[in-house]
Amino acid sequence: METPRKKQPNFLFILVDDQPFDALEDSGRYPFLKTPNMQRLINEGAKFENYYVTQSICSPSRASFLTGTYPHIHGVNQNNKHVDPNWKDFQPYNAHLQIAGYQTAHVGKIHMAHYRNEQHIRPGFDYWFSFIGQGEYFDPMVNDNGKEYQEKGYMTDILTDKAITWLKEKRDPTKPFSLNLWHKAVHEDHSPAPRHNKIFKNDSLPTPPYNQHLENFAGKPEWQRLKAWDHKWKEYIPSDTLAPKPWPIKGYKFKKLLECLLAVDESLGEVLATLEEMGELDNTVIIYSSDNGYFMGEHGYWDKRIAYENSMKIPMLIRYPEKIKPGTKIASNALNIDLAPTILELAGIEKPSYMQGESMVNLLAGTEQNWRDAFMFEYYVDDEYPYAGPNMLAIKNDKYKLVDAFLEDDIDELYNLENDPGEMNNLINDPEYDAIEAQLRKELEALKLKYKYNTDRDWWLKTQVPSAKKKKLEEENFSYTSIDCLLSEARENTKKNSKKMQKHVEQPHN
Questions:
Q1: What's the whole-number mean pLDDT along residues 19-27?
Q2: Lower CB density within 10 Å: C or N end of the chain?
Q3: How far apart (Å, rounded) are the C-alpha atoms in residues 4 and 438?
Q4: Which residues, at least 6 apart from 347, have a Cβ–Cβ distance to it below 8 Å?
């Protein structure tokens, strides 16, 4: 039963795409990066130091934020143009807010099924402004409440203007509101606003902490060495180690990402100023986060997906003076599925039984006594990028992380995060850690049962794809290329050409 409070708070949820957890002025990771408005949220609210996604990829994470469920539950466990979550059985939190009298709006990226026109409007929103897929940074095609047209300008600025216009002119001021401002930025191809282009040109990109840029994959799973060859993965030659890539990898790429972030910070400042002008700032729960983490050269990688901290950890900042003391730092492991229950509790709405996350209200207030000890992370192989990582499950607690990649002819991973926060030393074959590994595997099995883990990646896709596509997929038995097949092929090729193997082993990977 949904019983709203007499005075309900507003909600502003700003979500960025691919922002690394430490790409904040507060972290000091990039000395030249200044994010004063994000810093304001940190100073006046709470910063989570260990906030994670349940799957590190765009569409699954966004659906988990909305529904409070794991990707294997809501159905969007990959980026696929055919699938939205099962909205009927797992309503997004905004639908519950709407029922309770809120006005709701979504401005920005959704990145799920590629619907057109009015079908593009997702359930539970009174106002909708979005676009198909990744969208474009400049002069994008957009969808304004079902009407498609081309908007002139820079995407971050366009979304900011639409959000502010809705706040000032299009909503009913007598009702509480919930506004999603979900940016395209800072997703690649990283295209900064012209006013920020090359602003970091003369700044040096610092090497990552814990010497993560010196990764040579000794003692690591072989699939990670194949992944490290990136778009040249078909040329991978099996080896026990790889020479570290020259720093900085990817040239100017990562600085362009940070340049894109400057417009996002400006956007945050503009929206905060608008709320202050309206007299709604302190009665608005302001949430700032990212849909996943992002490798900035750590372990020689870019992108996200897999179970390293840089991929699965995200920034999470929340400002709400009524419940949160200024400068609050929260060390507990929290998840993207925890946000929906938190929003509903703050609005005085009972958490639906299907939501798997836990409300963070007591964490924010500093009164939580019984928070989770460990959590489960998952990943399903991506048809477009089979070399990016295999199916995997990971369990993480305050001290250890175990990663199971389900590969018969490769090793798993075990890290002591207390002694090795950079995850450079895989302990999976160290007999001193056998008991810890066994205990973590036991706990992971319990989490699989608790969260009803499903090994079938395509269970929901099979019910959603158009009939012609479904027939084709059924003929293929919904098969997909897994990384163990790629490794087997590489090993077989190596047997046929051992001289070529020796030549490449001595060279740094690309």
A1: 97
A2: N
A3: 46
A4: 4, 5, 8, 9, 11, 97, 100, 102, 176
From 312, 432, 284, 320, select the one nearest 377 (Cα to Cα): 312
Pairing of strands 328-330, 400-404: unpaired
The C-alpha atoms of residue 195 and residue 502 are separated, in whole angstroms, by 48
Q: Is 354 helix (H, G, I), strand (E, B) or coil?
A: coil
**Is the pLDDT assigned to residue 241 strictly greater than 90?**
yes
**Is 436 exposed, middle or buried (CB count within 10 Å of its CB: 0-12, 13-18, 19+)?**
middle
Q: Give pLDDT, residue 505.
A: 41
Q: CA angle at residue 81 from 77 to 86, to 5 degrees?
A: 50
Q: How many CB atoms lie within 10 A of CB 20?
A: 27
Which ranges of 300-401 does DSSP label H, i.e. alpha helix?
309-312, 339-346, 361-365
Confirm if 196 and 282 have CB atoms less than 8 A apart: no
Give the residue from 80, 81, 130 showing the smallest Cα distance to 110.
Answer: 130
Spatial strand order of the sheet with 316-319 comes to 147-150, 141-144, 127-130, 103-108, 177-182, 10-16, 284-290, 316-319, 46-48, 328-330
C-alpha distances out from residue 214 to 28, 238, 317, Å:
21, 19, 31
- Retrieve residue 6's tokens: 């007499």
Residue type, 154: Y
Determine if the peptide bond prior to 398 is cis (ω within 30°): no
Per the listing, tokens 């797992």 go with 90
| Rg over CA atoms, the chain | 23
Q: Are 126 and 119 in contact (CB under 8 A)?
A: no
> Looking at the chain, how many residues does it have?
510
pLDDT of residue 495: 65
Section 196-220 average pLDDT: 97
User: Among candidates 404, 386, 407, 405, which has minimal Cα distance to 395?
Assistant: 404
pLDDT tens for each residue of 401-419: 999 999 989 999 999 999 9
What are φ and ψ of residue 329, in 5° steps? -120, 130
**H/E element, 182:** strand 177-182
Computed over every residue of the chain, the mean pLDDT equals 92
pTM for the model stands at: 0.94
- Name the pLDDT band for 473 (thresholds 50, 70, 90): low
Q: Taking CA 291 as the corner, what is the angle to CA 285 and CA 296, rounded to the nearest 5 degrees?
A: 125
Instruction: Give the count of alpha carbons within 13 A of 287, CB side only.
Output: 27
Residue 488 predicted with pLDDT over 90: no
Q: How confident is the model at residue 510 (pLDDT cuts 50, 70, 90)?
A: very low
DSSP SS3 for 288: strand
